[in-house]
C-alpha cells in the first residue's frame, strides 16, 4: 500500500462540526466498502490520522473521508484546507466489511461512527445486493445527524433498508426514538435480531456497551458481532 498524493476536489459541511473531503487520486486503489485510510496533512505524528472511507467503491471519480472536527492540531489544520489542497493518503485498511452469505445484517452506530456504515449501505443500494439492513443510529440531536439526506434517499431507493434514529434530545417534529440504544430499543425495532449479524461502529465506550447488550442481554454468539472502534476523533 504505497503512500499517494491526493488533491482535495470538494469539501462538504455535513453538520456544524463534521466535514467530508472528496479526493482526486491519480492511481486509485481498489477497496471494500467499510475500510479505512490514513491521511497525512504534513510532517509529524499529530498531523496523521486513520479515518474511515465514507464513499462507496461504486462512486467513481473520488475517494471521500469524513471527520468530526475537534480542537486537535490535525482537525484545525484540516478545517482550513480548501479544494485544490493536497494530502498524502495510504489505503485500504480494515476488515469492517460485508461477509459472504450475510442476508440479514444490523448496524449500531453513534455520531461520526456512521462513516463506514454509509459506505457499506451505499454499496449495497447501488449494487442492489438484496441484503436486508436494519440501522440504529444514535446522536444527541437532529442537527448532529451525519449523512441524513444520503440515508433518506437510500431508503427511497432500497426497500430493505430500515433506519431508526435514536436521539438523546428528541425533537417533536422528527421521527425518532428518544433516549439511547438499549436492549429494549433493539427488540422493539429489530424483532428478528437473533437472525442478524451485527456491525458496531462508534466511540469505544459505545462499542463496548453495545457488545455487552448483544452478548449478555440478548445472548447473541460472538461470531454474530463485528466491531470497529472508530479512530476518527
Tell me the fraction of residues in β-strands, as a range: 25-35%
CATH architecture term of the largest domain: 3-Layer(aba) Sandwich
Overall helicity: 10-25%
> What is the CATH H-level superfamily of the largest domain?
Nucleotide-binding domain of ferredoxin-NADP reductase (FNR) module
Q: Which runs of at least 5 residues are low in confidence (pLDDT < 50)?
A: none
- Global Rg: 17 Å
Which CATH class of the largest domain is shown?
Answer: Alpha Beta
| Sheet having the most strands | 6 strands, antiparallel
Count of alpha and pi helical runs:
5
Overall body shape? globular
Structure explained in plain terms:
This protein folds into two domains: 4-93, Elongation Factor Tu (Ef-tu), domain 3, CATH 2.40.30; 104-229, Rossmann fold (3-Layer(aba) Sandwich), CATH 3.40.50. Helix content is 22%, strand content 34%. It is built from five helices and twelve strands. It is α/β, with parallel strands linked by helices and 233 residues long. The strands form two sheets. Strands 4-3-6-1-2-5 form a six-stranded antiparallel sheet, with helices on one face. The chain has a six-stranded parallel sheet with strand order 10-9-8-7-11-12, with helices on both faces.
